[in-house]
Amino acid sequence: MIPPARQLAKVSLVVLSTLTFPASASAQQCGGDFRQFLTGVKQEAVARGLSASAADRTLNGAQIDQTVLARDRSQGVFRMTFLDFSRKVISGYRMRNGAANMQKYASVFQKAERQFGVPAPVITAFWALETDFGAVQGDFNTVNALATLSHDCRRPDLFRPQLIGAIAMVQKGDLDPRRTTGAWAGEIGQVQMLPEDILLYGQDGDGDGHVNVKASSPDALLTGAAFIQSLGWRPGEPWLQEVTVPSNLDWSQTGLGKPRRASDWAAAGVAPRSGQISSSLPASLILPQGRKGPAFLAYPNFDVYLKWNQSFVYTTSAAYFATRLAGAPVYAQRTPDPGLSEGQMKQLQQKLVGMGYDVGKVDGILGARTRAAVQDVQKQLGFPADAWPTPTLLRKL
Which stretches make up the Transglycosylase SLT domain (predicted)? Predict the structure, then answer.
């Protein structure tokens, strides 16, 4: 299962030391005639030190893919709850295969942790969720996908550098513009990375002189580890821990961006379901489905998951999956308060906008800004401020 495109929080980096020259000021940045747009991309690539022949090999046959545009505008997986999504993607099959693959590639994972500080369960969870351990890597032509999204004026600042990166990969012999396929958003390989990141963090894990993140598991796993390290991974520290919470907790203190020392959470009655709380670390108490659903302490390494993918549901599921692969038990059986349908969520967002809150796009998705607004309104109304919107709250508004 391939999730929606990662919205990388980091600023786009220079892909190679030779690619340091500014793009032509006259280059068409997005929209307009597609062939003229590609001519501008070629000019930019050449200005950045890439060969004209590599640009031609990459771009000459590129086409707009309407299916890519449709996918970009309908990312429905973001509307699933944490329990629904995590139960769907963390199957017994994936748990068994995850354990088997960690054993099969033990030497690669040992090298990844030694070199980059990232433990095997963390890499393996991404490997499983992104492509089912390399089995489902996507069948969209990578160049067409990147050209389509670069030409589209919704997010050209994200995708145009990736199209230049694809030209660089063609020049290196690591991408075939006609045959290389991947996700609809241009991500390639077993852990689904964009071309610029492959160029920056690519690792030749099997020693063949190339970085082949599609066919070589060692290449993909080491490259993924290097990328995770670049996002700020802190070696030797936890990332997520399931906890139990007392019924009289101050719920307004929960949620991302409100860290306290883990020892302070323990003093307030928060207790781990397994292992020990890392008392010296800061941690946020997150409640994906409110105070009656699963509860987790999110340590600083959880921020790396949010840089990988900004969907709270996806990142929490990926981090939880990694804890399971590391030996944590299945989350406790809880019965959250009923949530909202997509239509109800849109109604709620419209009401919040009318009250002066910035929830971003009214899209029926419980994103970070909607959660923050819900928590504030709950506090004002005297509701438990756990940031989980319910039909009762909607009726009250």
Answer: 34-322
Pairing type for strands 140-141 and 295-298 reads unpaired
Mean pLDDT of 4-15: 35
Distance of CA 266 to the CA centre of its chain: 30
Cβ(322)–Cβ(121) below 8 Å: yes
311-343 pLDDT, tens digit each: 999 999 999 999 999 999 999 988 999 999 999
Query: H or E segment at 127?
Result: helix 120-131
Domains and CATH numbers, the chain: 240-325 (1.10.530.10), 342-396 (no CATH)
The per-residue pLDDT for 152 is 95
Backbone angles phi, psi at 193, to 5 degrees: -120, 150
For 266, list phi and psi in degrees, rounded to 5: -60, -40
Encode 362-371: b = buried (16+ Cβ within 10 Å), e = exposed. Answer: ebbbbbbebb
The CA–CA distances, whole Å, from 142 to 46, 100, 180, 391 equal 20, 30, 6, 42
Is it the case that residue 6 has pLDDT exceeding 60?
no
Its pTM stands at 0.90
Distance of CA 101 to the CA centre of its chain: 22
Helix (H, G, I), strand (E, B) or coil at 135: coil
